[in-house]
Design a protein that fits this description.
The structure is a single chain. This protein has about 700 residues and is of the alpha/beta class. The protein folds into 4 domains: about 190 residues, no CATH class; about 190 residues, Rossmann fold (3-Layer(aba) Sandwich); about 170 residues, Rossmann fold (3-Layer(aba) Sandwich), CATH 3.40.50; about 45 residues. The chain contains 29 helices and 13 strands. Strands 3-2-1-4-5-6-7 form a 7-stranded parallel beta sheet, sandwiched between helices. Strands 10-9-8-11-12-13 form a 6-stranded parallel beta sheet, sandwiched between helices. Helix 22 links the parallel strand 11 and strand 12.
């Protein structure tokens, strides 16, 4: 056997790594130790068989690992993605490294180089209407980058220690390095698994009420995926007009669809200016029952979701089937996300008091003053009592889906009981913009989570057409939009005429009007009104030339104008918009015009007040500055507490208020009040009886005395 000690080979070893360089290699060392025996069949054959089996088993094992993970969707989770990468890196080393016959120093560097380079490898799912090609790699934000840096540092440290230890013996450097390779692989694996530990599998269950609701849940999905978690969405397609998903980063989006959904006939969509539609709750109830039936009757869907073994589920409070489904799927940790304002019915489910003396119902107007009048408090109390009556309509409405749930999965707890097991409630509201009310540690404000990213970036340049509009108004520009759910073609003609007339009056301002039919511009005799089918609302609000925002006061619009520091004229139409408008008016951010009182004169007065009274602009700027500089950022709060809840399922019970276990009468101390009332009544009756006896005794005494005098 020839010993490879040529000058070419020496240059190869020298180029491999100066730290590892030696004038001898493994072949030389073995030859010196065994001599001619190293080439005898007694040594060669067992060696070839053993190493061949190791090579074959390693190749087959890693290949099977890749195939199983790639073909089994239930295994598409963070830990398995890392194992997939490790298996691929081992396969590449077996194929590309060992067969090339290079020495251990190359193998050592291959181990440290291949794994980081293979980080972008990902699994792809088949395309579908609501799935995405992009499978999120398992990473945990900044932590991941730290782990890769530590890997390199540890690798270099081990190499240095090996060098120092082996300087004593010049013949066994490579052999010791070979012995250290398993240690290096263990270190690599430990660091990789440490990165994967923080990743969770999360299921978001949502009813598609409106586009803003989908945008909110989409933002939450993106924040979790960006942090390295795996997120699936189960969407109940209530509103047939809402086809968006709100996100492109979810791993799976599963739709529950019924083409006969009653929600398409809800009154506020057909006639947004109707006054107090009465069939709203019935339509909601029918929709809830229908989609709960469609979901639970699909056993294959339920089993598919159960096999995912989610760490946490997030549901909305607008229906009860999602929360029941989390119990059916065996998901231990639960959270609620609310796309509307601070909902009193949500707080009451957590055992948080909602005093009617100063807190209004979320779907009712809010008084502009902080102190309510007697009539307002009386009205609040009547509605509050109706909502909390154990035998009333609201109690039955909360547990509406329970009969359907019991039909398919008997023994499932009621909605009101399951709601107590919620770890956190994430509100799409900022406490600075809320009415101010009692909360518990379960309530987390994350309003503005869809806006804050834009604050960190440089404002995008507006298209040229908008630059021209903004420059055309000598005193500034006003935006007018009624949101994504209101078709401007459904706005009554007299209101549209009043709007055009009012806008035309302020000729020094340009008006951008979001309208589904921009062609109406030819029918309007005004040079300062510009109709657009779609507007970049957030980008426009960030422009200093915007002087006012005329809005329906949907919660996303409320948050965007507040973060941008733009005063507003509010035209609320339905749902929580009246509540939002009342709160904003109370904080001095704008003027509220009721939808039943929209006329040319009311619009003229409101616009004149907002555009000419500097207090509105000053208040808006103050709130914008406070929102931008608040210590707890919405996205950080959201992700941090979701991870905490997913890690500790017992958290819900630990931080639960004792009031959740109290009845309505005990919670409000009506039993104590009844006791005191009984004591007072008893004392009053006793006093009355005592006085009666005393009067009777006195009258008898007087009669006896008078009769005694007569006898004398």
């Amino acid at each position: 056997m020839d010993v490879p000690t040529t000058s070419d080979e020496r240059r190869f070893y020298e180029s491999c790594d100066p730290i590892q360089y030696s004038s001898h290699n493994v072949t030389t060392f073995v030859y010196q130790q065994l001599g001619e025996r190293c080439v005898t069949p007694a040594v060669t054959f067992p060696t070839v068989v053993i190493y061949g089996m190791i090579l074959l088993l390693g190749f087959v094992g890693n290949l099977c690992t890749c195939i199983v993970i790639a073909t089994n969707k239930s295994m598409h989770n963070p830990t398995n993605y890392y194992l997939f990468n490790l298996a691929v890196s081992d396969l590449l080393m077996l194929i590309l490294v060992l067969w090339m016959g290079v020495t251990c120093c190359v193998l050592f560097h291959s181990t440290t180089i291949f794994v980081p380079l293979l980080q972008p490898i990902k699994l792809n799912e088949p395309e579908s209407d609501h799935s995405t090609k992009r499978e999120q790699m398992l990473r945990c934000g900044i932590k991941e980058r730290r782990h890769w840096l530590w890997l390199e540092l540890v690798a270099r440290s081990v190499m240095c220690m090996v060098k120092q230890r082996n300087e004593r013996t010049m013949y066994n450097i490579e052999l010791h390095n070979l012995a250290d390779l398993p240690k290096m692989n263990i270190i690599l694996t430990l660091f990789l698994l440490a990165s994967a530990v923080c990743a969770k599998k999360i299921l978001i269950i949502q009813d598609a009420v409106g586009k803003s609701h989908m945008q909110f849940s989409g933002t939450l999905t993106d924040k979790l995926v960006d942090r390295g978690h795996v997120v699936d969405k189960l969407v109940f397609r209530w509103n047939p007009l809402v086809t968006m998903n709100g996100t492109k980063k979810a791993r799976r989006i599963i739709d529950v669809v019924d083409h006969d959904t009653p929600y398409g006939r809800v009154a506020h969509l057909a006639d947004p200016f109707a006054h107090n539609p009465k069939d709203g709750f019935k339509t909601f109830a029918d929709t809830r029952l229908l989609f709960c039936e469609r979901t639970l009757e699909n056993k294959a869907l339920v089993e598919d979701l159960r096999a995912e073994n989610y760490d946490l589920a997030m549901v909305t409070p607008f229906e009860g089937c999602g929360l029941a489904l989390t119990h059916i799927l065996g998901i231990k940790s639960r959270a609620v996300f609310v796309a509307t304002s601070s909902a009193d019915y949500v707080f009451e489910g957590l055992g948080i008091p909602t005093p009617p003396s100063y807190i209004s119902y979320v779907f009712e107007p809010v008084s502009p003053g902080k102190k309510l009048t007697f009539s307002e408090r009386l009205s609040n109390y009547v509605k509050w009592f109706q909502k909390n009556d154990p035998q009333g309509f609201w109690s039955k409405y909360r547990n509406l889906e329970d009969p359907v749930v019991q039909k398919y999965y008997p023994g499932t707890p009621k909605y009101t009981e399951l709601f107590k097991s919620v770890s956190y409630v994430f509100l799409n509201m900022n406490e600075l913009l809320d009415i101010g009310q009692p909360i518990s540690s379960k309530v987390k404000f994350i309003g503005g989570i869809h806006v804050e990213d834009g604050l960190k970036k440089k404002t995008k340049e507006l298209p040229q057409e908008y630059e021209e509009i903004l420059s055309s108004g000598p005193k500034g520009t006003v935006i007018f939009s009624l949101g994504s759910q209101v078709d401007m073609n459904l706005v009554p003609m007299e209101i549209k005429k009043a709007l055009v007339k009012a806008f035309s009056h302020f000729s020094d301002y340009s008006f951008i009007w979001k309208h589904e039919n921009p062609g109406v511009a030819s029918m309007v005799n005004s040079t300062n009104i510009f109709f657009k089918k779609w507007i970049p609302q957030k980008e426009l609000l960030a422009d200093p030339r915007i002087r006012c925002f005329i809005t329906h006061m949907g919660l996303n619009s409320y948050l965007e104008l507040a973060y941008s520091g733009v005063p507003t004229v509010m035209l609320p139409l339905f749902a929580d918009q009246e509540f939002n408008a009342g709160v904003a008016e109370r904080k001095g951010l704008g003027v509220h015009v009721k939808k039943t009182k929209i006329t040319y004169q009311s619009l003229l007065q409101a616009l004149h007040k907002v555009l000419n009274d500097p207090s509105f602009n000053e208040n808006a700027k103050v709130y914008a500055e406070m929102l931008r500089n608040q210590p707890d950022k919405p996205s950080e709060t959201f992700v941090r507490y979701v991870e905490y809840a997913a890690e500790y399922p017992a958290l819900a019970e630990v931080i639960s208020l004792p009031s959740t276990e109290l009845s309505f009468w005990v919670f409000n101390s009506y039993d104590v009040l009844a006791f005191f009332a009984g004591c007072v009544l008893f004392a009053a009756v006793l006093a009355a009886l005592t006085l009666r006896v005393a009067f009777r005794w006195l009258s008898q005494y007087r009669i006896l005395r008078e009769s005694k005098k007569k006898v004398e």
